[in-house]
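help with these tokens:
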Amino acid sequence: MILKSRLHILSWITLIIFPAIGLTLLWYLNEYTIAELIQVLEFDKIYSPLTLLGLEFGLFYGIIVLIISQAPLFKELTSQQTELFKKIDFNWLDIIFISFCAGFGEEVLFRAGIQTWFGPWLTTLIFIAIHGYFSLTSLKKNAIGLLLFPFIILLSFAYDSFGLWFCIAAHFAYDFIMFAMVLIENKKEKRRPNNF
């Protein structure tokens, strides 16, 4: 329960503080007005077909990653993280909330904010590095970063053409499918009889 509470707190921080940082930087460094900052959030495009396309893209890429991650190299690398998430007693509302917080907060910070100054390529590298998927000491760990790189770079370039909500939806869908697999595995394990 403590892990779940911490994850919810981190989710709230991601939802509120990350966008606040990105928008504050735009306001301060690029001298955006309040009206321009609201425009950056593109609330008028939430119900766009591009948002649905983003959901499809995130689900598609998530399924590909799940398939590839069954390879022994990736299983070894992701097992520690998966085991940690299995200890958290997720339900469907938890994973929807956590996935949305990550999708919204991180995309506003990285796409609308950081990418404004560093461009798509460097922003993608920063994004993957901050998530711990690049390592100078472990070449194996870099394999996860390389697996995620196409997804993140495509989001970076899609931002200008498809908008913020495409990116938020794709990020949400990707995270959702990853957490959903952990939830489904947890439910399967709970149904299995104990073998001694």
Summary: Residues 92-130 form the longest helix (39 residues). The chain is about 85% helix and 0% strand. Residues 2-191 form one domain.
